[in-house]
Target: SGNH/GDSL hydrolase family protein
Amino acid sequence: MPETGPNQAVPDNRQLNSLQILLFGNSHSGSHNLPGTLQTLLQQGTSKTVSSLRAGGAPYLDERLEDQVSRPLLENSQWTHLILQAQKYSTTGLYNYSTAGAKSWIALAKARGVTPVLFPEHPRAGNTEEGMRIFRLHQQIAAEQAACVAPVGPVWDQVLQQYPELKLHSDDGNHAAPAGALLTAYILYEVISGRPADALPDLPALAVPVNSQRILRQAASAGIRQYPACPF
Model:
């Protein structure tokens, strides 16, 4: 595993004319075509050239360092943003897992001028403490190796409390339903673009009713106002 490296400032790539986004994660980063939805939102909201790619496989971030594929993928293309999901965490909160892998990826990204964005998972259905706990874990990582942290858990918590009629979880209670995946995409949109998600237009082609889209957009922007994602 590479050394974490110096704690460089987070590159601010919000104003670039072209956005190339690489996503490392597990099934939570791919459900309901999250990368494609994020690309659509960025194209609609910024009118920029946007590409997004979710790397293959579903290893944890520390395992991905050793897979002989992910690091060359990061280093052999001109990415502007690296979204990092799949940090190991304790589902019970009783155990601690190493965060060295996540910090190594952050340092590698920043050394290449890539904006690192930590993507904490949303909480499981019915779990009112998990979302904030996972978010705080990622904030701790960013306190040691500076990165953006998308406030996924806190925003999900707020929507689940305020709009219980909205189905954010799939039937397994773990993965996102279409509305949940869209909520996460709105959060990532605002983190990456620096533009308010609640200013995006209705997109009838999405698999979520437009009245629900409006609720989710407003929740994403409110959450980022409460929990600013990036140190710039």
